[in-house]
Design brief:
mainly alpha, 2 helices, single chain, Short-chain dehydrogenase
Length: 86
C-alpha cells in the first residue's frame, strides 16, 4: 500500500496533491473538516441570496470549487476511516 494517495477531485495522469496515509488521525480530520466547513458556509450564504439573476457560468464558478473541496474532504475522511479500522 502506497504511503501517499492522490486527491481524486482532479483526474490527471501525474497527481501533484497527495494525502499522506501516515498522517495522524487528528490532522486528517482537521484537513477534512476545514474543507467541508468552507463549502457549508458558502452554500449557507448562497441560500440566503436571490440567485434568479445568476447565469450558468456564475453557477459553475460557484459549484466547481464546492465539488473540489467536498471531494478533497471525502478523500481525507476515507483515509481517516481506513486508519481507524487498523
Amino acid at each position: 500500500m502506497n504511503q501517499y494517495i492522490p486527491l481524486t477531485a482532479i483526474d490527471c495522469l501525474i497527481p501533484s496533491l497527495l494525502i499522506d496515509r501516515q498522517s495522524p488521525p487528528d490532522v486528517l480530520h482537521a484537513n477534512a473538516a476545514v474543507r467541508i466547513l468552507a463549502v457549508t458556509q458558502l452554500l449557507e450564504s448562497l441560500n440566503r441570496l436571490d440567485l434568479s439573476a445568476a447565469d450558468a457560468i456564475d453557477l459553475k464558478h460557484i459549484t466547481q470549487p464546492c465539488a473540489i473541496l467536498l471531494r478533497d474532504g471525502c478523500d481525507l475522511l476515507d483515509v481517516l476511516g481506513q486508519r481507524l479500522q487498523l
